[in-house]
Amino acid sequence: MLTLLLVHSALAAAPVVTVDITLPPQAQQAGLDATELEQTLTDAIGQELHTVDLAAYMDQMANANVLSAKGLGVDYASDMQRFELGGGVGTAVNGAGFQFTSGGGLPETGFALQVGLMAGLNLGIASPKESALRRFRLYVNGMSATTKRDPFTATFLNYGGHLQIQMIKGGDKTSGLRWGGLDLTSGYEFSSYILELNKGLPVVSDNLEWNASGDMVLRAQAQSIPIELSTNLHIFVVTAFVGGGGDYNLSGDSEASIGINGPITLTYNGQSADVGTASASISQAGVASTFTPRVFAGVQADIFMVKVYGQLNVTLDHSVGGHVGLRLAF
């Protein structure tokens, strides 16, 4: 019987992975060793559940969640004069470079998914074109849904509000080549991402398979205040935009709660046999950076009032995110 104890901090319970294998006589005669098999499976479980450095992994989950909704609720390119409606879908990762998918099972590094709906209003909608109110735009956004990513159920939630001020007015809107001016954007954003095990979690290593089931939940949530400067350049039917700033995170944390167990199956000499059990009991918290400097850039196709866009976000804490969407701006 092999038990792995990893203590990451005084505030978190030590992850415990227990593997107990008893080989039948035929397997022993085939030269298999129970202790070696226990170590092999323990290593595989540690890699699958990230118990080798779970504290760092949960920090990555917290930081990815912070970035996941950035830009979903604001428009940096359309120069809205009346009102706007739209939506988008995006992801963010932390510690994985320019990778926007998480594969199957648990994400290899910090990961979060968000889908958002947004609405915008120019506060000078009823004012003359020369009015200073025309420079103020108000945006609200929000959405919650549950999706499947076997063997987990993923639940996301985001909402927020932003005020965008045109600090420097851009060029003439009738021109095919037009600078959009300089905008200052700030507001409040909330995002959360939850992964919950809803079926068996198989862990396979060579000729061993652990069929685990039980309770396994990973949660990340954040509240942040973004401060951004952005500009754009409109070239006939395409608008490119860039910006930078930072996010002050009022809160940003994550938590893993895992209690799973199940039988171990050994395949040898063309046959399979149940040879033991394994279990994992884990509780670990993570935290996001308090302040995150960030740059972003994107491109948008302008088809009359229809705007199809893509945006890339990059932070100095090794987070990368991106989203695409469709907006109607009037």
Give a quick rundown of the structure.
The chain is mainly β and 330 residues long.
- DSSP, total strands: 14
Mean model confidence by pLDDT: 91
Distance between the termini: 68 Å
Which structural category do the helix and sheet elements fall into? mainly beta
Number of domains: 1
Main sheet characteristics? 10 strands, antiparallel, barrel
Beta-strand fraction estimate: over 45%
In the sheet with the most strands, the strands line up as: 3-4-5-6-7-9-10-12-13-14
General form: elongated
Instruction: Give unreliable regions as ranges.
Output: 3-13
Number of H/I helices:
3
Radius of gyration: 25 Å
SSE string, helices as H and strands as E: EEHHHEEEEEEEEEEEE
Helix content: 10-25%
What does it look like?
The protein is mainly β and 330 residues long. It has one domain (2-329). The protein is built from three helices and 14 strands. It has helices spanning 25-29, 34-49, 54-68; strands spanning 2-5, 16-21, 83-94, 110-122, 136-149, 152-168, 177-197, 201-205, 208-235, 238-268, 271-287, 291-303, 306-315, 319-329. The protein has a ten-stranded antiparallel barrel with strand order 3-4-5-6-7-9-10-12-13-14. A hairpin with a 2-residue loop joins strand 9 and strand 10 (238-268). The longest helix has 16 residues, at 34-49.
